[in-house]
# Entry
Amino acid sequence: MNTLLFGLALATITSSPITAEPIITHPEPLKMTVIATAYTPRPEETDSTPWLTAAGTRTREGVIASNNLPFGTKVRIDGKIYTVEDRMNRKYTNAVPARIDIVFMSLEKARHFGKRTIEIEVLNTGDEAHGVRISKADSADES
# Structure
């Protein structure tokens, strides 16, 4: 009798449609507070190749520089998506909080943005093998 009841229960379970919550495969974006500055691709603000990023792409709006995020990392700032394709001066590598530099094509817009503390959302880490590098260095080292 028990075998019959178990068989009926099993048949009911396996033949009924199962509605389950979808499995979340992507974690929530990593939120970070960073110091953000603005720059333009002018020779006064860059190296000898102002229109070329460290990743080898052309400088344009939508690009950010970061020493703590791998190339290709997508970051959301105020609802807009940016991609890490450039690097900052190496003195900012161990800055706490981390720093980013946002490309603006207009000097006026860059000056208007200035320097501010903002929250960013890291949507992916570009080069997954290296991930996000956050230093625990003393913040007194930054200028």
Remarks:
- DSSP finds two helices and six strands in the chain.
